[in-house]
Amino acid sequence: MTVDYDLVIIGSSWAGIYAAKKAVGLQASVALVTQGDDLFLPNDTLINHSISEIGQFNYQLANNPFATASETRLPNVSLSQARDWAKGINSVMQTGSNSLASLAALGVDVIAGKGEFCLLPQLAFQIAKRKLRSRNYLLATGAIFAPHLGSNASNDYLTLRGVVQQDLADLGQNIIVVGSDPTALELAQTLSRFAKKVTLIVEQQRILPQEDLEIALLIQAQLEAEGVKVYTNSLVSQIKTIDEQKWLQAGDRALAADEIIIAGDRQPNIAGLNLAGVEVKYNSQRIYVNQKLQTTNSNIYACGDLIGGYCLPNITQYEVDLILKNTLFLPWYKTNYYSLPWAVLTQPNLARVGLTQQQAQQQYGANIYVIRQYFSNLAQGQILDQTTGVCKLLIKENGEILGCSIVGDRAAELITIIALMIRHKIKLDRNSMRGLTSLSIPTVYPSMVEILQRSVDDFYQQKLQHNSRQLNRLRTWFSLRKNWHR
After folding, report:
1. Where are the alpha helices (DSSP H) in 194-312?
2. What homologous superfamily is domain 158-264 in, according to CATH?
3. Strand partners for 137
4. Beta bridge partners of 250
5. Confidence of residue 366 (pLDDT cuts 50, 70, 90)
6. Lateral strand order in the sheet of 390-396
7. Does CATH place domain 342-469 in 3.20.20.70?
8. What is the Cα–Cα distance from 6 to 101, expressed in whole angstroms?
9. What is the CA radius of gyration of the chain?
10. What are the start and end residues of each CATH 3.50.50.60 domain in the chain?
11. Residue extent(s) of CATH 3.30.390.30 domains in the chain
12. What is the pLDDT of residues 393-424, one digit of tens each?
């Protein structure tokens, strides 16, 4: 069968644009269909994180340890100003190297408009009167926000995307955020830093239930220290407006608010694609894919928000890279998220790679080393007044790193070092003496990365204390040395 392209990408999301740039760089013949009313599909992560950074600036102004009551403080940035700044950044990204014009210049066939799959006489993607035939297709249309609140809920709420689209000068003072994924935690903290009174409603027993309890509680404690009320185990059953006041029923609590924001409940953005007609299986929450990220039609792949799970850009990027190997070369590659780091971009960050303590002990029993080092012990942490946080490292007896969780300033960057060690199977020295007398992770002093070297040293110290034979050898050695100098 003659085809027009090696790969047709459906969706001008940032993931779709990334895939198109990389595929054409590999000399593949590529088409990108925008599949939206606008040329670009929304980049929620970029805009939300940009606003979060301005919130961090406000927080630093309000908590300046050198300021006195008599000094004139710099004015805080308003939420509307932050929104405009974030939109400006998004615009710059869309007109720079990620612009559709840049893609076209690289050789990507950029097609504006919406289309759908058709099956006969061969699988193709039809847009207007044109049929695009390709060896493979990549769905990169992202998600839409469609909360599932039942028949008792009115539409008197905002979604995460709706917050950015409206005039934030009109956003009320008392705000309820509903959600338990990383985006909800980030939004709750950000709004609090813009002097909003925020309540976070979490359906589960605790925030971040997939993380170690001590790690999740550190993040919750930080949110509560900044004024965010956290109600866990609270299923939202009703949203109503009574006498111009918004009300939310969460568990056995009835809460009033000026605004209610649903920061979750994403659904795949697949309307009009005719996926059922080409035998792609899906439900209201995700498209079904196998470990190769193929849908139930083996020539159609999907990634990111479309396939469920946390909506984190680095995970989506990993999925795109794997899909390009499978679509442009041979479909041999399967997903393995074990060595892939991810982060919750609250302040401080929460970052993790590999296993949690519970997962590690379930697989390897109690015979693992659990190392904890605290940011309060770092000189750089004291200098920057960023002392909240912990590095938790899980290591086997033979030096293999099983997992790492970091809560702290720049944790999203620090975790990369451990992720590289896990990915490339770089073990710590199983001999504690060699480990203690060498630099396993060379660092600069003072710096935050010193937390990793301290953690590694702690591992060697613990191993040494458990090895009575080696301890006796050391005592004998130093006893002999004393006698030599008499």
Report:
1. 213-225
2. FAD/NAD(P)-binding domain (3.50.50.60)
3. 8, 300
4. 236, 253
5. confident
6. 342-344, 349-354, 401-408, 390-396, 368-374
7. no
8. 21
9. 26
10. 5-145+267-328, 158-264
11. 342-469
12. 999 999 999 999 999 999 999 999 999 999 99
- Sign, CA torsion 358/360/366/372: negative
HSE, CB side, 13 Å, CA atoms: give it for residue 14. Answer: 22
- Hunting for tokens 């006195």 — which residue is that? 68
Query: What local confidence, expressed as pLDDT, does residue 298 receive?
Result: 96
In the prediction, which pLDDT does 68 show? 59
What 8-state DSSP symbol labels residue 211? Answer: S
Beta-ladder partners of 369: 395
Q: Distance (Å, rounded) from C-alpha 148 to C-alpha 152?
A: 11
Is the omega angle on the peptide bond into residue 65 within 30 degrees of 0, that is, cis? no
Q: Name which CATH class applies to 5-145+267-328.
A: alpha beta
**Is 144 strand, coil or helix?**
strand
Total number of residues shown for the chain: 486
**How many whole angstroms separate alpha carbon 147 and alpha carbon 155?**
10
CB atoms within 10 A of CB 64: 13
Rounded to an integer, the average pLDDT of 263-289 is 92
Burial 193-208 (b: 16+ CB within 10 A, else e): bbebbbbbbbbeeebb
Give the span between the Cα atoms of 429 and 421, in whole angstroms: 13
Contact at 8 Å (CB) between 96 and 254?
no
Rounded (5°) CA angle 8-9-11: 145
CB neighbour list of residue 376: distance below 8 Å, 6 or more residues apart: 382, 387, 388
CB 335 within 8 A of CB 322: yes
For 375, the token pair is 């940011």
Cα–Cα distance measured from residue 256 to residue 233, given in angstroms and rounded to the nearest whole number: 18
Q: Which two tokens stand for residue 315?
A: 């995970």
pTM as predicted: 0.90
